[in-house]
Amino acid sequence: MDSATVLQKISPPIERSLAESLLSEFTDIERRYVLCDWEPATLNGGQFAEVAARIIYHIDSGNLNKRKPVDSCLKYIEDEKNNNPHSFPGRRASLHLARTIRTVYKFRSQRGAVHIDPDYSANELDSTLVISLCRWIISEVLRVFWGGSPSDIAKIIREIVRYEVPAILINDNSYLVLHTDCSVEEEVLLLLHNAGHSGLSRSQIGKSIPKSSPSVTRAIQNLASPSSRQIIRQNDESYVLTPNGSRRIYDELASKLMLTDK
User: Fold this and answer.
1) Alpha-carbon distance 222 to 121, whole Å?
2) In the chain, is it the N or the C terminus that has fewer CB atoms within a 10 Å radius of its CB?
3) Domain 168-257 is in which class?
4) What is the distance between the alpha carbons of residues 177 and 175, in angstroms, rounded to a whole number?
5) Are 176 and 205 in contact (CB under 8 A)?
């Protein structure tokens, strides 16, 4: 699953350029988050909220306005005096979305991400809140306009946030970590982070790491060991990251996702 596939599923009814912007803003927030770049992640949450508000407004009102202010979009949806016709599939869903979008947008503007505040700087907790709310928003959009069970939607979200890792070269279905100072274990983790939910087979991992086969085998065994549990082999024999492995990426290897260190 990738962004292009998701785009085909939700557009139409979502206007294509808005759908493209929603997915682009979302993946950028995720990328900033994994790189521990807190302030841009918080700021970009506001940009994501702008796109999401215009999408919900378009569906609810039937009017496409790619520059309509967020507050105007949300006021139409919230419609406290019940004056507006509503076409969004599920009145309660549209209200929940509107309130969550408003929270993201207000947080972005009032916590200093837009207005310079000498007493405030974005931090991990701020960014975690923003990314969690944005994940819920995009999950709800997919649930409404694509359908599927919550578990399916969660899987889709994991897939579309597979980052295009600049430090990994992809050529003819083979992969290469461009950093030359990574251990074999680190290369395995970076490759599986890039592979996402689909993972990589032992053969694919071996072909992607230009080091001795025994060293690759040892790295895989260490990462999958009971004392580590950073990767796991699936029923189809492909390897994927566990939450332990993802946490190591976040804590130790985020800068290795880029071609230059932060």
Assistant:
1) 39
2) C
3) mainly alpha
4) 7
5) no
Would you give the distance in Å from CA 152 to the centre of its chain?
16
Say whether pLDDT at 123 is over 70.
no
36 phi-psi bin (left φ>0, alpha ψ -120 to 50, beta other): left
Token couple for 218 = 């040892």
pLDDT tens digits, one per residue of 173-203: 778 898 999 999 999 999 998 887 778 999 9
Domain map of the chain by residue range? 3-160, 168-257
Q: Which pTM value belongs to this model?
A: 0.65
3-160 is classed in which CATH architecture? Up-down Bundle (1.20)
d(CA 187, CA 132): 28
Q: What is the pLDDT of residues 132-142, one digit of tens each?
A: 899 899 989 98
Compute the Cα dihedral for 254, 180, 200, 233 and give only its sign.
negative
| pLDDT of res. 25 | 87
pLDDT at residue 262 in the model: 43
